[in-house]
Amino acid sequence: MQCRKYVQCVMAGPCVDVGGIRGVLCDTLTPLGFEVYPFKIGWYNAVLSSSLHLPYSDDTLAVVVLSTPSMFERAFRPFLESGSCVGVNDPIDQCIRHCISTCVSQCFPGQEVNVSYDYEVLPNRKPKFLAQTAAHVAGAAYYYQRADVAADPWGEKKMFGVCIHPKFGGWFAIRALLVFPGAAVGEELQQRPPPDCVPSQEARVELLERFNFRWQDWSYRDIVPAAERYSQDQRTYFSTPPGQRAALLRQWGLFSAEDSGAQAKN
């Protein structure tokens, strides 16, 4: 494949062609409804406590993969229609793993690429990577947290943060992390902050309250105008209790296996 020869070139030597690697990933994954954002491991580790660090050198290349609203039609439906979904694992998880593992095996043959998915956890039950932190440091989506609100109105309440995409608002998901252990990134990759698309304090308060107290009504996703949103079928699927999703897919003629016992995803 032309892709293989090209990647072998950009992966050669002590430093790599980040643009070339990103281009190869985009060529394969963008048509399926994904976005990819490269970053340095050091950027991620710099904002976390040592217990949460990823065990790579600071200049190691990593890529965070997001799914956009179009992934449901471009990747998920064809995956189901192909009969590739089997077993008891979540169909969305199976689809994401299939798309990314196929891309890695075809485009980076013989190269070490460590892939972690958003649903995977370590033996201590901590996630393999903090997805929202990765998206923020990569410049993909701004991770709005309690610390981003100057006058905190919540007292002792626990408040979780949420990423907002400059194009899709909250209508997206962070799916995977690719790490290239043998790829040292040079000065050509400079960190850029994610677009601050919810700049006002009032809107940030509203965002965090919608996400923490009313997340099921989907309204936090529309905190900014979105160029594209989930389709009605996609909303129906994610609003359906996990144990009933296999029946829904069978009703749509997309699934013939037994109830998958799928875990909730967004």
How would you summarize this macromolecular structure in one to three sentences?
It contains nine helices and six strands; from the N terminus they run ααβαβααβαβββααα. By secondary structure, the chain is α+β, with helices and mostly antiparallel strands.
Task: Tell me what the structure shows.
The model is unreliable at 8-13 and 257-265 (pLDDT under 50). Helix content is 34%, strand content 14%. Helix 1 packs antiparallel against helix 2 (18-29). The relative contact order is 0.17. With 266 residues, the protein is of the alpha+beta class. The strands form two sheets. Strands 1-2-6-3 form a four-stranded antiparallel beta sheet, sandwiched between helices. The chain has a two-stranded antiparallel ribbon with strand order 4-5. It is built from nine helices and six strands.
How are the SSEs placed, and which strands pair?
Blueprint: H1 2-10, H2 18-29, E1 34-40, H3 41-46, E2 60-67, H4 71-81, H5 91-107, E3 114-117, H6 131-137, E4 142-144, E5 162-164, E6 173-184, H7 201-213, H8 232-239, H9 245-251
Antiparallel strand pairs: 1-2, 2-6, 3-6, 4-5
